[in-house]
Design goal:
It is built from twelve helices and 16 strands. The protein is an alpha+beta fold. It folds into two domains: 296 residues, Zn peptidases (Aminopeptidase, 3-Layer(aba) Sandwich); 111 residues, 2-Layer Sandwich (Alpha-Beta Plaits). The strands form three sheets. Strands 3, 4, 5, 6, 7, 8, 14, 15 and 16 form a nine-stranded mixed β-sheet that branches. Strands 9, 10, 11, 12 and 13 form a five-stranded antiparallel β-sheet that branches. The protein has a two-stranded antiparallel sheet with strand order 1-2. A hairpin with a 3-residue loop joins strand 1 and strand 2. The protein is globular, with a radius of gyration of 22 Å. It binds (2S)-amino(hydroxy)ethanoic acid and manganese (II) ion (2 copies). (2S)-amino(hydroxy)ethanoic acid binds next to loops.
């Protein structure tokens, strides 16, 4: 199939990304558009309008994943799938996730503009709740679709306002009741996700596109420390059951235990809730997050399984419990897809290099169902999960041209 006619529109793609960045815009060119919120739905409606312009069919599944489909000459053929997520971190950037959805839309728009009908149908998906920041669990849309857990598995997870995941999902689906429904699941022929690198390698190497070989493993835990609240002025320090002091001991012990001179093991405590959170009351209930990552599954299992013992040993007067909420094992992408992406980069005459992903992505769960791969574009100084996140229009366009070429090859 001739790539020459398949030309994506850099301007259309950039304008759409900037229009979406207005929905949930925060200071410093950032975006706060969290999963299953009214802002999320507002952005979805905008993208639905663009998809309708090129005649793509629109549907939503029971996990609220949003699907766009263009038919192929052989409607019975397994589709080629592309996409990413539309939700952001609380202090997110304009490109993480949403770039992959808009790049997928741009690729099918370019095929439409070129009058190219591929043999296989092509689908673009926006996965629900990849970031996980609102409810403390990521990739619930792609995990539901891949059959890793049922859609009600996370019903008891609550956001900071106490809204449960199940309630938020039900409200979201009700608000989108006018959109045709689609069965959960499916087996695509292949999946490619375009995403910003969120690391410094491509920019430092002066390379246009990353051909992603795989994704390291990630494990998320919630540690709960239970003490006793008391008066800050009248209760002797010696007799206190101070949950915040013991939580700090646990975090310090974990930090020491997870220290890796090679800086390959990644240990992060990014979220903490202190109750009653009053300056003159001793804390009686503290929860904090643990995000642990490593490319070696066995090593990650061993280190993650040690967390409970380390936390218990750190307790002086309080009790603690550790709950694992998210476990994404390392994945190596299918050679057939990695090679197709590399060939597509050659066809687009863009420089490319193979690299692994430090961030997790929905592709981690899709690869359990179908041969998958990812395309990275450079992130300025590797900054992400930060309003200063930036990739240039030309860099984003190069990635999308490679995506379009790869989709064309895989769908032919
Ligand atoms: O945390 C991650 O790796 C992803 O960016 N949500
Ligand atoms: Mn992302
Ligand atoms: Mn992210």
């Amino acid at each position: 199939m001739d790539n020459a006619k398949l030309v994506i529109s850099e301007a259309r793609q950039w304008d759409r990304l900037m229009a979406l960045a207005e929905i949930g815009a925060i200071v410093g060119d950032g975006v706060n558009r969290q999963a299953l919120t009214a802002l999320d739905r507002q952005a979805r409606r905008l993208v639905i309008g663009w998809a309708a312009e090129i005649g793509a069919s629109v549907s939503v599944d029971a996990a609220a994943n949003l699907w766009f489909r263009v038919e192929g000459s052989d409607p019975a053929a397994a589709p080629v799938l592309t996409g990413s997520h539309m939700d952001t971190q609380p202090k997110g950037g304009r490109f993480d996730g949403i770039y992959g959805v808009i790049a997928g839309l741009e690729a099918i728009a370019a095929l439409h503009d070129a009058g190219i009908v591929t043999r296989r149908p092509i689908e673009v998906v926006a996965w629900t709740n990849e970031e996980g920041c609102r409810f403390g669990i990521g990739c619930t849309g792609s995990m539901s679709w891949a059959g890793v857990h049922p859609t009600d598995f996370w019903d008891d997870r609550r956001d900071l306002a106490g809204v449960g995941y199940g309630k938020a999902l039900a409200e979201h689906l009700a608000a989108e009741a006018d959109i045709p429904r689609r069965a959960l699941g499916g087996v695509p022929h292949a999946y490619i996700e375009a995403h910003i690198e969120q690391g410094p390698l491509l920019e430092a190497a002066g390379v246009d596109v990353g051909v992603v070989t795989g994704i390291q493993g990630s494990r998320w835990f919630t540690v709960t420390v239970q003490g006793e609240s008391a008066h800050a002025g009248t209760s002797p320090v010696r007799g206190r059951k101070d949950a915040l002091q013991d939580a700090m001991r646990a975090i310090s012990a974990l930090s020491g235990a997870m220290d890796d001179p090679a800086d390959v093991l990644r240990f992060t405590v990014g979220h903490m809730v202190v109750l009653p959170n009053a300056s003159n009351s001793v804390a009686d209930h503290v929860t904090f997050s643990v995000d642990l990552r490593h490319p070696d599954g066995a090593f990650l299992t061993a280190r993650g399984d040690a967390i409970t013992g380390i936390v218990d040993a750190a307790m002086t007067t309080c009790t603690a419990s550790v709950h694992e909420g998210f476990n994404a094992q390392p994945v190596v992408f299918a050679a057939s897809v990695v090679d197709a992406i590399e060939a597509a980069a050659e066809a687009a005459s863009v420089s490319h290099v193979r690299l692994a992903s430090g961030a997790f992505h929905d592709a981690q769960f899709v690869s359990g169902v179908a041969p998958s791969g990812m395309i990275f574009v450079p992130s300025h100084k590797g900054i992400s999960h930060n309003p200063a996140e930036f990739s240039s229009s030309a860099q984003l366009a190069a990635g999308t041209q490679v995506l379009a070429n790869a989709l064309l090859a895989l769908a032919s």
